[in-house]
Amino acid sequence: MHVLIVGAGPGGLTLAACLAQKGIRSTIIEKFPANRAAGYSIGLHLNGWGVMERLGLIDQFKARAMPLGPAHYRDVRGRKLFSYDYQVLADVAGGRILAILRQDVQSILADAVRETSQIRYSTTVSTIKEVAGGVDVTFDDGVSETFDIVVGADGYRSSVRRLAFGPHEEFLRPLGYRAAAWRIKLDRPLNASFVGMMDVDLQGGLYDIGDGTAATLFCWRDASLDRVEPAARLPMLKRHFGTWPDPVAFALDADIDWNLAFFDTISQIEMTSWSKGRIVLLGDSAWCLTFLSGQGTSTALAGAYVLAQELSTKGFSEAFEAYEARMRPVTTRMQAVSKKIGGQYVPGSQLGIRLQSWILPIMLSRPFAGLMSKRFMAPKIDLGR
Ligand SMILES: Cc1cc2nc3c(=O)[nH]c(=O)nc-3n(C[C@H](O)[C@H](O)[C@H](O)COP(=O)(O)OP(=O)(O)OC[C@H]3O[C@@H](n4cnc5c(N)ncnc54)[C@H](O)[C@@H]3O)c2cc1C
């Protein structure tokens, strides 16, 4: 069997690694050149941790993990709102949580599959057509090839989904927010894992990576779905956050390369089925949970593991059915959770901010953090034997 995986993100690369473990051949294509340095941090939780253990890669993740410590929130005049400690959340999860740069996840995984899968960078799909016994794919350089199965692991604006299932608008469910994230060099240590600021409908902050740089994350309420041209992105951020003090002011003064930074609307993907014939979707392209859930990466990794496992023991249509039956309860639940989290992440009133400042430090303290994590983290996905 020869599987084409479109997208060398966390989901696509993990699928290639899991397929290789089962002796299944795969080719990966990625539209960007080799390991683009996307400058944001992601959290690895229970389900992703389990997959990386099974692939023998967890020690590499631990070696590149960012320090876990306090998170401090301030208002836009720089006054303290509240604090909590990420280490408490890690302890509650038995230590099986870490934060890591997305580009590090990709480079660990790309190294792991280098011997077993071919990765073609700067390549995308132009057409996908199912034929008797396979799928004909034309790449953007005009070359055509036939594969047994095509997996769309190409993120929430998936081309595979658009070509095989229908236009984005049919599946995109906007949550009413926009976000931006990029990486900066710090001029002084943050002395915390995260320093954030909040105002009505706005949140912005910096994660300390531990090497003299920080990953920023800005999120604001914005119902419009229009694409914002690269030249208009910083002015839009300055309109919302331009009067805020350091460290936000410092982050906005950095020289931002919008080709590497993230800037998009926050939308979930909702589909009634993730497969059509020999084509199947994985991760954000199938069920995007958004960063608000904090579980998108781990769920994509678990989905990759489950899909490879099913493909190694069943024909493709039964395998796709079994994969969806195992994954869907978790993705449905986490989509509901992340819809609720938005209003708490970016409170819509001063009263909301005050309530948040009062409730969050209590709920994230040692006696209650276990309850919080049960409510907001993805339940354990059975990875089988
Ligand atoms: C700012 C931010 C913060 C986040 N924080 C967290 C967090 O803390 N915890 C967490 O679990 N998740 C977080 N997420 C979500 C997480 O990044 C995603 O859920 C996860 O990366 C999904 O992996 P994926 O492989 O399915 O898709 P993606 O990560 O989107 O990867 C898709 C890949 O496909 C490539 N691609 C796209 N189109 C094509 C095409 N046409 N042809 C070829 N290649 C293509 C892309 O370049 C990319 O490499 C965050 C996301 C953002 C934006």
CATH-defined fold name: FAD/NAD(P)-binding domain
Given the C-alpha coordinates, what overall shape results?
globular
How far apart lie the N and C ends? 22 Å
Which oligomeric form is depicted?
single chain
Number of strands: 19
Helix content: 25-40%
Ligand types:
flavin-adenine dinucleotide
Biggest sheet character: 8 strands, mixed
Number of domains: 1
What's the overall average pLDDT, rounded? 93
CATH secondary-structure class: Alpha Beta
Any overview of this molecule?
Helix content is 38%, strand content 26%. By secondary structure, the protein is of the alpha/beta class. It has one domain: FAD/NAD(P)-binding domain (3-Layer(bba) Sandwich), CATH 3.50.50.60. Strands 4, 5, 12, 13, 14, 15, 16 and 17 form an 8-stranded mixed sheet that branches. The chain has a 6-stranded mixed sheet with strand order 7-2-1-11-19-18. The longest helix is centred in the C-terminal third of the chain and has 30 residues, at 316-345. The radius of gyration is 21 Å and the shape is globular. The protein starts with a strand and ends in a 9-residue tail after the last helix. The mean pLDDT is 93. The structure holds flavin-adenine dinucleotide. Residues 6-12, 29-32, 40, 42-43, 102, 124-125, 153-155, 159, 179, 181, 217, 262, 283-284, 291, 294-298, 300 line the site of flavin-adenine dinucleotide.
